[in-house]
Amino acid sequence: ENAENMYFFSDLALTLNEPEERVAPTDSRLRPDQRLMESGRWDEANVEKQRLEEKQRAVRRQREAEAVEALEEGKDYEGYIPLWFERKVDAVTGELICIYKGGYWEAKDKQDWSSCPDIF
């Protein structure tokens, strides 16, 4: 019903971006620019998107500077390490893949998101 007004998306597709309680503060459904856009506040959403992108660029620049400093000092630099996934080479395809390493569901049960970075 009303599919022509919903870009002919399925019910599932229409609800994928619905907010959910008790998720990690890094959940993409919590992006403030996205929430503003969905409220029809386009100008505010664009300003917020610019702010988020600049914040991401600043974090990348900081990591790059730390990597250079570590190299100059002859130290190893690990860089960004995902919280709940690890990169591995697939034994069959030889492709680099991400494997869930645990921790998310435990953090969600406890509502302990202290290990999450402030990305928004």
TrEMBL record:
GO cellular component: cytosol; perinuclear endoplasmic reticulum; plasma membrane
Coiled coil segments of this chain: 42-69
Pfam families attached to this UniProt entry: Oxysterol_BP (PF01237)
Protein name: OSBP1 protein
Record bears the keyword Manganese: no
Source superkingdom: Eukaryota
Keywords, comma-separated and alphabetical: Coiled coil
MF term (GO), any: cholesterol binding
